[in-house]
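Weekly sync, protein design subgroup
Attendees: M.S., D.O., the rotation student, P.L. (late)

Item 1: inverse folding check
M.S. brought a backbone from last month's batch and wanted to see whether the design step gives back something sensible before we order anything. D.O. pointed out we never logged the input encoding, so this time it goes straight into the notes. Structure tokens as presented (394 positions):
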């Protein structure tokens, strides 16, 4: 007699509670409460809590399509496993900066993980004016440790290539290849922008030099398997408080160019910086500068103390690599600034500005800054020149 095999089904509040009891040690008979709290573009997120004991857990489930678009955009369920595996792999190097994964279920495309609801999503907090004093030091550490430790500078080439194969993530990479590196540079139907931006956008589409540099950056993303990236490191993928930082949502993880994670984070800080003035802007600009300073210092330290590369001591090699990462990061930051302004997926930092003329003005600044970072990435010599460029964007 054939036994019925388990099949994928979308979770409901009821089935989430039942699964939470199986995968998490709630007190027996606890009266569990459950809400779907997902606000991202792709997945369901259920929070299951026992008010009496104060215990709680998160169940994240991938849908067989992109939630933001609907069933017309099918998407692999495999991304749930990639995300859980990336959280665990990165957790080996920065256990304090990622949530603990308690369990996974490949058939249900489910990850059961630590509830971080005592923290706030950094994008929301920054928009509300929070300073998050630890944010850039923690993310600089996260970037250096996760990226160095999964690269050829730290791993035996067999282990690195095994990991690169395990984290092959073609469908999610294709989204990035389209939405970050292609569609915003052409008159594509996925783009989404206010009519007031038409002139600026048409100028961008007509800029041949920009297209060539975007093509080069896309080629880097397609071909340079340098380290296990988070793959979508924006401020909406970071939980924070004054003393704690946790990076979530690495479902776009794959082996790619190190500068991509660095650049995406910097770009999302740049959006926030553009919305602020005076001392408030300086708070964010200090985060931009400290992210790079911390990344560079920790990467250097790891290079010297954990590096296995035969050319590790060769004069100028470390400087060459760090300079490449910096240059790539600026280019990728430029692409993120452009795509989050006129592409399919926007950021609340700008879209949330109700005053139309102010919003359009800041979006134009974001576009110009994005173009500058892409075109001038070889000439910009330090992170302080980047923060200076933000001031010049006005
Ligand atoms: N570990 C967690 N603890 C608490 N809330 C979470 C956790 N993971 C996700 N969330 C909530 O769910 C939202 C969407 O999660 P996210 O992983 O970004 O989903 P998506 O992949 O759809 O973008 C987050 O903005 C956050 O509010
Ligand atoms: C159709 S996916 C669009 C966009 O959404 C992802 O972000 P998130 O899951 O964090 O909301 C990613 O940035 C994709 O480019």
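Designed sequence read out in the meeting:
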């Amino acid at each position: 007699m054939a036994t019925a095999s388990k099949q994928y089904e979308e979770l409901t509040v009821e089935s989430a509670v039942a699964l939470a009891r199986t995968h998490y040690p709630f007190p027996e008979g606890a009266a569990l409460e459950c809400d779907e709290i997902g606000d991202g573009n792709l997945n369901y997120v259920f929070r299951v809590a026992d008010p009496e004991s104060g215990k709680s857990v998160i169940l994240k489930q991938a849908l067989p399509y992109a939630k933001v678009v609907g069933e017309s955009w099918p998407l692999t369920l495999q991304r749930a496993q990639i995300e859980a595996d990336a959280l665990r792999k990165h957790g080996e190097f920065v256990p304090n900066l990622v949530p603990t994964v308690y369990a996974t279920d490949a058939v249900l495309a489910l990850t059961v993980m630590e509830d971080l609801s005592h923290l706030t999503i950094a994008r929301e907090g920054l928009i509300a004016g929070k300073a998050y004093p630890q944010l850039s030091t923690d993310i600089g550490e996260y970037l250096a440790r996760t990226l160095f430790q999964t690269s050829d500078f730290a791993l035996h080439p067999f282990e690195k290539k095994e990991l690169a194969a395990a984290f092959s993530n073609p469908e999610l990479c294709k989204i990035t290849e389209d939405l970050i590196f292609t569609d915003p540079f052409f008159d594509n139907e996925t783009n989404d922008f206010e009519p007031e931006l038409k002139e600026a956008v048409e100028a961008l589409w007509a800029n041949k030099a920009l297209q060539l540099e975007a093509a080069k950056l896309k080629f880097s993303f397609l071909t340079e398997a340098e380290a296990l990236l988070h793959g979508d490191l924006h401020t909406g993928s970071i939980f924070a408080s004054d003393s704690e930082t946790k990076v979530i949502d690495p479902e776009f993880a794959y082996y790619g160019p190190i500068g991509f994670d660095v650049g995406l984070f910097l770009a999302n800080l740049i959006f926030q910086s553009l919305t602020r003035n005076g001392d408030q802007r300086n708070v964010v600009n200090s985060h931009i500068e400290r992210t790079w300073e911390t990344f560079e210092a920790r990467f250097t330290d790891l290079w010297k103390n954990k590096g296995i590369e035969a050319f590790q001591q060769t004069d100028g090699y470390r400087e060459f690599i760090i300079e490449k990462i910096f240059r790539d990061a600026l280019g990728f930051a430029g692409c993120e600034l452009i795509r989050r302004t006129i592409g399919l997926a926007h950021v609340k930092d700008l879209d949330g500005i109700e005053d139309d003329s102010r919003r359009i003005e800041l979006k134009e600044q974001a576009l110009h800054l994005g173009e500058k970072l892409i075109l001038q990435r070889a000439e910009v010599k330090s992170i302080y020149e980047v923060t200076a460029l933000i001031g010049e964007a006005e």
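Discussion: The longest helix spans residues 278-306. Residues 13-114 form a domain with the Phosphorylase Kinase; domain 1 fold (CATH 3.30.200.20).
Action: P.L. to compare against the previous round before Friday.
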